[in-house]
Design brief:
The chain is about 40% helix and about 10% strand. It is built from twelve helices and five strands. It has a five-stranded mixed β-sheet, with helices on both faces. Pfam families: DDE_3, HTH_32.
Length: about 375
C-alpha cells in the first residue's frame, strides 16, 4: 500500500508566526493550544508523522487541523463546542419562570414574605407544578439568561402639580427657542457646603484606593452657593453666601440685571419659597425680569442641575477641605476653568420620553 502524501500548512507570514507563538505561550484553552502547536510545527516543516509522535494524537486529527487552518486561518484554532445535552426545561417554561420571578409573592396570595429568594421561588415553582424539579443554580442561570436580576427597589416622587405639562412645555420652549427679546437664565442653589471628607474616584493601583479620614464632625458652619447658568453663552455666574434667603436670591437677580441691562431676563427657577417672596416678585415686575417656575417636583428640568452634578464630581468629590476659604477656592478654580471652555447650551433632552408626554405619568416602570 502506497504511503499517503504529506500534508503541510500553507506558507505563514512573519506576523502569523508571531501570533502563533503568542498563542502557544499564553493560551489557557488546551484545545486552542494543541491546535496552535500543530500548525506551528507543520509550518516549521515537520511531517504529520513527527507531529503525531510528539503530541500523541492521531494523524487524521493533525491533517484536519492543518486543512482547517489553511481554509479559515486563526478561526480554526477556536473549539466549536456542540453545546452539551439538550435543555431539560423548554423556552416556554423559562419565560414563565422569569415572569413569575418579576411578580410579588402577594400576587399569588403569599403574605408571609414580600420578596422572592431563590429557595422560595424554587419551592413556589415546584408547588405550582411549573416545573417538576429544579435546582437553585439552574434557576439563577435561567433568570440571568432571561435578563432578570436582583435589584434594589427605587422610589419615584410623583408630581401633584395639575399644570405640570403646561409648565414643562413652557420651559422646554424657552430652551428650544430662546426669545429674541431677551435671555434665558437657569438659577438654583447648590449645597449645603459644609466641611467634610467627600468620597470620589481616582486612578490608583489595583486594590489600593485612596483613603480619607472618617469623621462625623462638621466644623466651620455651612455655606450656600447661588448660581445662574446663561444658556446663550453656557457660562455660570455664582456667589457663595452664609444664607440662602430671598435677600441673597434678590441680590443675585440684581447682579444679573446689571450684567445684561438692555435685555429681558427669563429666569427658570424651582418653587423654593425665597423665589416666590413678594419682594422678589415686586422687584422682578419692575425690572423686566420674568420668573419661569418649574412644575412641582420637576427640578430635573432645570438645566443648571447637570452643571451642579459636574461641579460636585470634579471640584468636590475626593476632597477634604479644612476651611471654607479652601473649598471656595476649589469651586472658583473649577468655574473659571469651565467658563473658559463654555459653549451655548442647546438640545436639552432631545431624545427623552418627556418630549412625547401629553399627561403626567402616574407610574414609572
Amino acid at each position: 500500500m502506497a504511503r499517503r502524501p504529506e500534508v503541510f500548512v500553507r506558507a505563514l507570514s512573519m506576523e502569523e508566526g508571531r501570533k502563533l507563538q503568542r498563542v502557544t505561550r499564553t493560551s489557557k484553552d488546551p484545545v486552542r493550544l494543541r491546535r496552535a502547536i500543530v500548525v506551528m510545527m507543520s509550518g516549521q516543516g515537520q511531517t504529520v508523522r513527527d507531529i503525531t509522535s510528539l503530541l500523541q494524537v492521531s494523524a487524521e486529527y493533525v491533517r484536519d487541523v492543518i486543512h482547517a487552518f489553511n481554509e479559515r486561518g486563526f478561526d480554526a484554532l477556536d473549539p466549536k463546542w456542540s453545546g452539551g445535552r439538550p435543555k431539560v426545561i423548554g423556552e416556554q417554561i423559562r419565560e414563565r419562570i422569569c415572569l413569575i420571578a418579576r411578580t410579588s409573592p402577594a400576587d399569588w396570595g403569599i403574605t408571609a414574605f414580600s420578596t422572592w429568594s431563590l429557595a422560595k421561588l424554587r419551592e413556589h415553582l415546584i408547588g405550582r407544578g411549573t416545573v417538576a424539579a429544579i435546582s437553585r443554580e439552574t434557576l439563577r442561570r435561567i433568570l440571568h439568561a432571561g435578563g432578570v436580576s436582583w435589584q434594589t427597589t427605587t422610589t419615584w416622587k410623583a408630581s401633584t402639580d395639575p399644570d405640570f405639562i403646561a409648565k414643562m412645555h413652557r420651559v422646554l420652549d424657552l430652551y428650544d427657542h430662546p426669545p429674541a427679546d431677551g435671555r434665558v437664565v437657569c438659577v438654583d442653589e447648590f449645597g449645603p457646603l459644609n466641611l467634610q471628607p467627600r468620597k470620589g474616584k481616582a486612578w490608583r493601583p489595583v486594590t489600593k484606593p485612596a483613603r480619607q479620614r472618617a469623621t462625623y464632625n462638621r466644623h466651620g458652619g455651612v455655606m450656600h452657593m447661588l448660581a445662574a447658568l446663561d444658556l446663550a453663552t453656557g457660562k455660570i455666574f455664582y456667589r457663595i453666601r452664609d444664607r440662602k434667603r430671598h435677600r441673597e436670591f434678590l441680590d443675585l437677580l440684581k447682579t444679573l440685571r446689571t450684567r445684561w441691562p438692555d435685555e429681558k431676563l427669563y429666569v427658570v427657577v424651582d418653587n423654593f419659597s425665597p423665589h416666590r417672596h413678594p419682594k422678589v416678585r415686586t422687584w422682578c415686575a419692575a425690572h423686566d425680569v420674568e420668573l419661569v417656575f418649574l412644575p412641582t417636583y420637576g427640578s430635573w428640568l432645570n438645566w443648571i442641575e447637570a452643571e451642579f452634578a459636574a461641579l460636585r464630581y470634579f471640584a468636590l468629590n475626593g476632597t477634604d477641605h479644612r476651611s471654607h476659604e479652601e473649598q471656595n477656592a476649589a469651586i472658583e478654580g473649577y468655574i473659571r476653568w469651565r467658563n473658559a471652555r463654555a459653549q451655548p447650551k442647546t438640545a436639552f433632552a432631545t431624545d427623552s420620553p418627556i418630549r412625547t408626554w401629553t399627561h403626567y405619568p402616574t407610574k414609572v416602570a
